[in-house]
Amino acid sequence: MSYFRRHCIEQKLLVGTFAAIPHPVAIEVTAASGVDFLCIDWEHSQISRDRIEDLIRAADVHRVPAMVRVPGHAAEDIAAALDAGAAGVLVPRVSTAEQARAAVKATRYPPLGARGVGPGRAAAYGYRIPDYLAKANAELLLAIQVETAEGLANIAEIAAVDGVDLIFIGPGDLSVSIDAMGPTGKDRLDAAIRSITTTALSARRAVGIFRPSADDVGVWSQAGISFFVLASDTMFLGAGLAVGVDAAKQGKHAAKTE
Ligand code: 3PY
Ligand code: MG
Questions:
Q1: Residues labelled as active-site residues
Q2: Do residues 38 and 30 lie in contact, with contact meaning Cβ atoms separated by under 8 Å?
Q3: End-to-end C-alpha distance for the chain, whole angstroms
Q4: Distance between Cα 254 and ligand 1 center (Å)
Q5: Phi and psi (nearest 5°) for 46?
Q6: What is the dihedral of CA 123, 125, 129, 134, to 10 degrees?
Q7: In angstroms, rounded to a whole number, what is the distance separating the alpha carbons of residues 193 and 209?
Q8: pLDDT value for 251
Q9: Domain locations in the chain?
Q10: What distances in angstroms separate CA 54 from CA 34, 35, 57, 79, 101, one per listed residue?
Q11: What is the pLDDT of residue 103?
């Protein structure tokens, strides 16, 4: 089993970020920052299918596992990400056990699933198909996102699906779906996150969540969440620049008023 999937299943603390900038330079900078993994965001960024392979290649140079958040539930997209050499997939908006079973089917080779065999990068372009087939089911992480009112209602059935490694909570979509946005919805959203976490943990699934900053990672890790996707390369770029620009302007202002 890959250390990435093992650490995830064993619920060791893992901290990564979304990669939304469609260039290998951004991947190399992110990979060198000390993240445990990165998640290439094919759902919510302008990253194209052919670019994904180059981004994974860039992460491989730094030996940082790169998983891919696929745009939806299509088996072809899951296969494309895994054939490119992704360390796993994050499947968004899984709201029923049937959808979770379809994600397992698309991610795992028989007998667990029905993923198609192909000569992609993951199988050394066809030169190592038997080796890859022998290890892929054990190496690849399957994370599914629970982020709708329907998913919240069905969490026990979803978490019971064999072959799912991690239940990943999307607080943004969840807050919209259960009408718990903004400060007034915080308690209801937190209660929903805790309910998903407790149910998934009792089904022996690891639990992950997106956090826009590190501020409450401690609180959520005490609740049993072990896998954190912290903001994204674009968010860190914007926030880092804003702090620098602000500090520079304040310095200028202080010099003027001395
Ligand atoms: C959400 O918050 O909806 C997400 O999908 C975060 O990853
Ligand atoms: Mg979402």
A1: 44
A2: yes
A3: 62
A4: 40
A5: -95, 45
A6: -10
A7: 9
A8: 82
A9: 3-233
A10: 20, 19, 5, 16, 29
A11: 98
CA angle 128, 75, 230 (to 5 degrees): 90
- Determine the average pLDDT of the residues in 2-23: 97
258, pLDDT greater than 80: no
Structure tokens belonging to residue 92: 């968004």
For the segment 98-157, what is each residue's pLDDT rounded down to a tens digit? 999 999 999 999 999 999 999 999 999 999 999 999 999 999 999 999 999 999 999 999
Ligand 1: which of 210, 220, 228, 235 to mutate, judged by most atoms within 8 Å of the beta carbon?
A: 210
Structure tokens at 184: 């007034």
Q: For residue 257, is pLDDT > 70?
A: no
Residue list, ligand 1 pocket, CB within 6 Å: 145, 147, 170-173, 210
Q: What is the mean pLDDT of residues 173-194?
A: 96
Decide: helix, strand or coil at residue 119: coil
CATH number at 3-233: 3.20.20.60
- Quick one: residue 182, left, alpha or beta (phi over 0 = left, psi -120 to 50 = alpha)? left
Q: Which residues of 209-218 are buried (b: 16+ CB within 10 A; e: fewer)?
A: bbbeeeeebe
pTM of the model: 0.95
